[in-house]
Write a structure and sequence with these properties.
The protein has one domain (2-99): Beta-grasp domain (Ubiquitin-like (UB roll), Roll), CATH 3.10.20. The chain has helices at 24-30, 54-57, 65-71, and strands at 2-7, 13-18, 49-52, 81-83, 96-99. Strand 1 and strand 2 form a beta hairpin. The radius of gyration is 12 Å and the shape is globular. With 110 residues, the chain is an alpha+beta fold. The relative contact order is 0.30. This is 2Fe-2S iron-sulfur cluster binding domain-containing protein.
């Protein structure tokens, strides 16, 4: 198990444990974070966008061109933004810190 810290729009940190090999979006949704992810990993939307802490950004594999295109459409995107559906958790990401943008949406109204 590895630890992931989600920081919500109000600045509150929520640390969760996750198994390696699963996607960050799945972990976020299981932890009740307000990420919609309506395209189910097909990169047809940007509703699962997170802002990766600068210290962790370079530890992620580079975004593919389709992901970069989707991030251009994301509200509140930053230089270190990524789609959480495209981040698979590995042991190297133990301690990963991501921020949920204030502009995020959730179909459950969270």
């Amino acid at each position: 198990m590895i630890k992931i810290t989600f920081i919500n729009a109000e600045g509150e940190a929520h640390e969760v444990e996750a198994e390696t090999g699963i996607g960050l979006l799945e972990v976020a949704q299981g932890a009740g974070m307000p990420l919609e992810g309506t395209c189910e990993g097909q990169m047809a939307c940007s509703t699962c966008h997170v802002i990766v802490d600068k210290a962790w950004f370079d530890k992620l594999p580079p975004a593919v061109e389709d992901e970069e295109d989707m991030l251009d459409l994301a509200s509140g995107a930053r230089r270190t933004s990524r789609l959480s559906c495209q981040i698979l958790l590995t042991d190297e990401l133990d301690g990963l810190v991501v921020r949920i943008p204030a502009e995020s949406r959730n179909m459950q109204g969270v």
